[in-house]
Hints:
Layout: H1 15-18, H2 20-23, E1 43-48, H3 51-67, E2 71-76, H4 81-90, H5 95-101, E3 104-108, H6 121-138, E4 142-147, H7 158-171, E5 177-184, H8 190-198, E6 202-205, E7 208-211, H9 218-221, H10 226-262, H11 269-284, E8 288-295, E9 300-306, E10 318-319, H12 326-332, E11 336-338, H13 350-353, E12 359-365, E13 372-379, H14 389-423, H15 429-444, E14 448-455, E15 460-466, E16 478-480, H16 487-491, E17 495-498, H17 510-514, E18 519-525, E19 532-539, H18 549-611, H19 617-644, E20 654-657, H20 658-668, H21 670-675, E21 679-682, E22 687-690, H22 692-708, E23 716-724, E24 727-734, H23 766-776, E25 781-785, E26 791-798
Parallel strand pairs: 1-5, 1-6, 2-3, 2-4, 4-5, 21-23
Antiparallel strand pairs: 6-7, 8-9, 8-13, 9-10, 11-12, 12-13, 14-15, 14-19, 15-16, 17-18, 18-19, 20-22, 23-24, 24-26, 25-26
Amino acid sequence: MSRPIQRAEDTILGLESGFASLRSNPEFTGPAESVAEHESYDHLALVYENADDQFETAIPFMAAGLERGERCLYIADENEIEDVTAALRTAGVDVESALESGALTMHTATDSYLRNGTFDPDDMIAFLSDAIEEANDEFDGLRITGEMTWVLGDDPSIESLVEYESKLNTLLPETNGIALCQYNRERFSPEIIRDIIKTHPHLVYDRTVCQNFYYTPPEEFFGPDQPARETDRMIGTLVDRTEARVELQSHREHLQRQNEITGDPDRSFEEKLQQVFELGCDRFDLELGAVARVDTDEDWFEVEYVSDEHPHFEPGVELPLSETYCAAATEIKAANSVSNPVAEGYDDSHVYAEFDIRAYLGTYLEVEGGPDRTFFFVTSDQREDGFSEEERTFQHLLGQWVTYELEREQRERNEQALYEIAANTEWSFEEKTQRLFELGCDRFGLELGVLARIDPTNDSLEVEAVSGEHEHLRPGAQAPLSETYCRLTVDDEEIADVTAPADQGFEGTIAYDEFGIETYLGTRIELEGSLDRTFFFVSSESRDRPFSDAEETFHHLMGQWMKYELEREQRERALEASNERLEQFAYAASHDLQEPLRMVTSYLQLIEQRNGDALDADGEEFLEFATDGANRMRSMIDGLLEYSRVETQGDPLEPIKLDDVLEHVLEDLQIRIEEHDAEITVEELPRVLGDASQLRQVFQNLLSNAITYSGDEPPRVRVDARRRGQEWEISVRDEGIGIAPEDQDRVFTVFDRLHSLEEYEGTGIGLALCQRIVERHGGDIRVDSEPGEGSTFTLTLPVPDR
């Protein structure tokens, strides 16, 4: 007899391991389950109709055994041995090596089933017992398959064959072996095929591994009660099949209802979840559905959603996780159930003793980017039967949808938070960066966010900003780039992660040995005209799963924003430097021009004083033109000087009352207002954030222009305001000559005049000065006008915080 098997469970031959290769092929279907009242899963019948069907099962069956390190014994009869070995070669088996090592042995019916000239069941069982024992000495079991067409001769009788099958069913469960008997349906009579079906607990037919409801143990097959037992079995099979069809129909209906609920685009997640709760309660015959946040490390459980009112389960209720049935699901991180709390060791738990919960079906949800959850159904009624595999499967499917929705909501919240950070105009780059660090640490479950400058050419990394305190990673800290995980973003991919530093070749590096970094997610930011950056998150805690595509995508979005902000800050610094140089140039130019202009004016005055009487009419006119031109030049230089000093010579912005500003402007313009019979109406104006002196210049220019360009009618001007978000819109409307649409942008250009000096005086710098002042205040100015219909100048100014 064979020696006792002392092997790991996954190496013992049986239905599961014997047909793993077939079930891995999508063309093969069928469960690998036991048949009631029978313990042998190691003896199967293959019923086929042609050679292709035969080899599609038999050859993979043998090849899988050789790959697993088993001895494979093939008995050929219908096919020649050469045909079988050729098929094995086609399947990728090294037949010569297998034969030479003894892993593959080939036999005929003559030297196996009929080795003593006739078939004897006991003799064949002895042959196989010796083969199994010999195989177990050197190999991981024996895999047998035999072609049974030899039975079609004069010997044996069907009774002898069934006797052999019965003894084989007894032999195989006690040894590390499995047998597949091959029957050609085209050559065996229907009566024999029927008997074969009845005497095998499992069959393979048409690429399907079948659980045999018609199986009859041989001792019953030949017993006196065989007709009665067969009748009972047939009736039982009919009932089982009917119940299975009813269960399948119910399962399909529930699946269809689940698809209808989850696919509804017009309902929110909360509305869908309530309907899923109702569906689950109906499917499992339980009272309440719920979702809870859980933390296995902290032994924490908090109810998040419930399907109905309950005296104990309501959103916000917290318990130790170990005091709930959800511990059953979190321990295996899958679907699990409790149907007999006392027998299963939950009689002293809080939910049993205090909440009076008597049955539970739940599943663990590992939620990316947020706390993990359990999704479960409970009842206070005792449940007589346990939960079926179909119920667990359906619960698992419902849980997958809940996981998807929770992760989708989490992604949307993170993306919205990222947008709000990026769009905030009141935060500085440094403030936005810190908030981005906080968002990333929360999203990825890591400890620290870092921004660093990198120079691959000089193998250097310098920390620029961090989200918190760290012994080594702090602003200004430097390290060789090659000694950090950031080198991956330079050498390999734009985005890189490290979750197993030792396995990824970082043992001996500063980042691993000195900094103690166990987990890293980072990206490289390439910049023009500046050192590149690396933007990354790290943790001293190891991570038990790799970063997902969704996490890497979100990190990429964060990196894109960081790139945009860095480039914008770089452009602003360059613009500030350019503006500063321009202001210095304008100031120097205007200042230096004053001296020769004073000289020209002085000499013109001397000519007039000394030679005024000697000049004729033309000379006096020429002198007047020169003096007037010098004065206009002085006004233009003064305007240019004032324009260049808007940024550098202005007062700090502070809350001011525009009513007070307009009052002073109207006082200054009082003589002009009276001379032109002007009517200026000022509505109540708000407090704004501004520089009173500069805003006084703005309104003086606007009101002066309104008076100057009023046309033939007395000037009529109206000043009012309206609020728009965090800005005030201040409008100055007149009824003057207006501005053509094509000229409305030109009015804000320095020295660009729309009228000749003979028509209207001025330097052409007033509105350009207004625009520069308003822009310094963070606002803008525009004009809306039609010729002959008047003009409306509108400027925006910020609302003060206080």
